[in-house]
Amino acid sequence: MSNTDTFDLFPIPVSRIRGALPLSVVAGLVMHFSQEAVQSNSSSQNLSHTRMLKPGENPLLGEVATLLKPHLAAFGALLFGERLGWAVKEMWVNLLDTGGRQAMHNHANSFISGVLYLTPTHPSSQTVFMKSPGGHDFAFKNDHAGVQMGPYNADKWVSPAPEPGDLILFPSYLMHAVPPNEGPRRITMALNAIPTRLDSWGYTVGFSG
């Protein structure tokens, strides 16, 4: 009689934190920053953004950054094997109106990225994560109606339905997108974070800003 062991090699972590922000803070973000989301998106005319915001320029943003620090430290320990100091590098608010979408992309010049959900999200516009194009998979695919998709053969993963105040964290290199929104306006705050330093056997790189 034979036994089979299957191992999950080198998985990519994605964390959902329910209620990361109190609803009072969520309401404040919507009230203060939704009016500033006037920068149009190059891929969708029904998507607009604020400029890049820094935690130190507004007390409400500073409160958000403080509330997120423990979650960033815990997620960073999954990536680097150590609880490091973390700082929110930048944040911005996104307004996704009916019919709007966010094209596939990742985030440069950061290590942890996240999405804070500030309003209810229609099922059509839940954040989708996907494999990077041109990866190391087989050139041929087995893809038809009878295939059972799972973590080893799927190209995409739809994140769980969020509630206002929820946070999702992921490595900044991970490709993600938002399909066309079939519901009412969806407001989110995206963010990038960096550690205070990385140490590779005595060769230390520090980050500041």
TrEMBL record:
Could you tell me the superkingdom of the organism this chain comes from? Bacteria
The protein's name: Fe2OG dioxygenase domain-containing protein
Q: Please name the source species.
A: Pseudaquabacterium pictum
